[in-house]
Amino acid sequence: MFELVEKIGKYEIVREIGQGATSKVYLGHDPFANRAVAIKVFIAEDAEQGATANGKPQPKSMQQRGFMAEAALVGKLTHPHIVDIYDAGTEGKLNYVVMEYVPGGTLDVHAVPDNLLPVNYVVEIVFKCVRALDMAMREGIIHRDIKPGNILITDAGDIKLSDFGAAVRARGNETSNTMEQTAEGIIGSPGYMSPEQIRNENLNHQTDIYSLGVVMYRLLTGRLPFNASNQLGLAYAILNTDPPSPSSLRPNLPMVLDDIISVAMAKDKHARYANWIEFGKDLTAAFAQLRAADELSTDSEQFEALRALPFFAEFSDPELWEVIRISVWSEHKKGSTLIVEGGVGDALYVLVDGSVEASLRGARINTIKRGGCFGEMSYFNDKIQRRTTTITATSDCDVIEIKASAIRGASDGMQAEFNKACMQVLIERLQNMNNRLALLKAGSDE
Question: In the list 109, 171, 237, 358, which could disulfide-bond 226, CB 3.0-4.6 Å?
Fold first, then answer.
């Protein structure tokens, strides 16, 4: 049994913060980076290694397999909604993985009937998991143990996927253009396992889609879709019976959520969502029915709105989430003034929907439509400057405002994408101006 020590590797141990079937987790301190970290410690067993059918060595212990799975991911999965894995090492009989410390706990506390989260928030959480697992899929990673206990919630209410100890790197399937993992023993949490996991079949990303569907069901209703007195009964139910619909357990739930969960949890994976993008699209469509008329849009709805705009076409997912976190969204009625000529400001704006007119000394000089940018010159000037034009809404419109100082304080990658996008706007405006001047010249020559 592992006794608490003061130090593992270069990391100072503060206290135990969690325990699983194959490991313990400690709060630690990285003296070099001067940050709190979570250290998952696996206790290596003395048992001999087994061998696969082809004669290659294979670790027998679950601890060793979990350690190897997470150690292989050090620095590879970088996403706003996946816990960062910083380091891995071995010290004596101890194998350990060093991860980002998320102090808020897991979603387990919100998976019971008397402590459920708002419905909109649940859909928001599932959408963020979809985006994170889509990125993992593109890296060839199947998590295999998606459950509320492996979804951390930050103090600010954001989420982080954790515990990739059961994850595997999948191999490409040329005939189906999917990623599959060869059956190697049943791994996962029984209540969240897909039918193909229980049958010990080859797995692809759709096993995680099924498990996330179960998570969504649990967070909306406070109970698992299948209940049984033993694991054999639970396995039979997962393979052969249909669960009650979420709305039958919580009558105020909209039917659209029943439909989404039904597809995600289809027993036949061919009837399930084929990929994470399809799952995400249905969640996005559900937002329109869930949101009250005067409610501000959610992070995920904002993400989908920005992803559809050419201005943000080259931004990666993490960079787009960063944009959302530093921007302010606002609605403006037709005829309202967004910027006044001669006023001061240090923000640029992107038009998410609607149209606006730019005027100089009362004369219209340009019309900007959905996806357009204005006020961008403030980004290229370190000082707050006077506006050179007036911007007036010519229709009801949605606009995001981003302070130039916030962009300059953002990640290098996001700044680079803003530079490219703003330069493209300026180039297009110069081209339009040249075309107009050429037309005017041609008219005067006639």
Answer: 237
Give whole-number Cα distances, 410 to 142, 374, 405, in Å.
31, 20, 9
**CA count, 13 A, side-chain hemisphere, 71:** 13
Name the superfamily (CATH) of residues 314-445: Jelly Rolls (2.60.120.10)
* Residue scoring higher pLDDT (326 or 46): 326
CATH fold match for the domains 7-100 and 107-295: no
Determine which one of 145, 158, 163, 208 is catalytic. Answer: 145
Better-scored residue on pLDDT, 376 or 65: 376
Residues facing residue 357 across a β-bridge: 367, 392
pLDDT at 179 over 80: no
Q: Which H or E element spans position 117?
A: none
Q: At what angle do helices 412-445 and 317-326 cross, to 10 degrees?
A: 80
Domain definitions of the chain by residue range: 7-100, 107-295, 314-445
Measuring CA to CA, which residue among 79, 257, 60 is closest to residue 159? 79
∠ CA 228-115-263, nearest 5°, is 55
145 flagged as catalytic? yes
For residues 40 and 11, give the distance between their C-alpha atoms in angstroms, rounded to a whole number.
12
346 vs 335: which has the higher pLDDT? 335
Of 100-104, 341-345, 437-441, the range with the lowest mean pLDDT is 437-441
What are 113-141's pLDDT values in tens digits?
A: 888 999 989 999 999 999 999 999 998 89
φ, ψ for residue 172, nearest 5 deg: -70, 145
pLDDT at 415 over 50: yes
Distance, in Å, from the CA atom of 383 to the CA atom of 345, rounded to the nearest integer, reads 9
Which CATH architecture describes the domain 7-100? 2-Layer Sandwich (3.30)
Q: Which residues contact 207 (CB under 8 A, 6 or more apart)?
A: 142, 144, 194, 196, 197, 269
Nearest alpha carbon to residue 349 among 291, 409, 402: 402
Separation CA 126–CA 271 (nearest Å)? 20
The correct answer on CATH 3.40.640.10 for the domain covering 107-295 is no
Query: 37-46, 171-180, 325-334: which has the minimum mean pLDDT?
Result: 171-180
| Residue 45 · residue 60 · CB < 8 Å | yes
> Worst-scoring range by mean pLDDT, 11-25, 43-57, 87-101, 360-374?
43-57
Is it the case that residue 219 has pLDDT exceeding 90?
yes
> Which residues are paired to 373 by β-bridges?
350
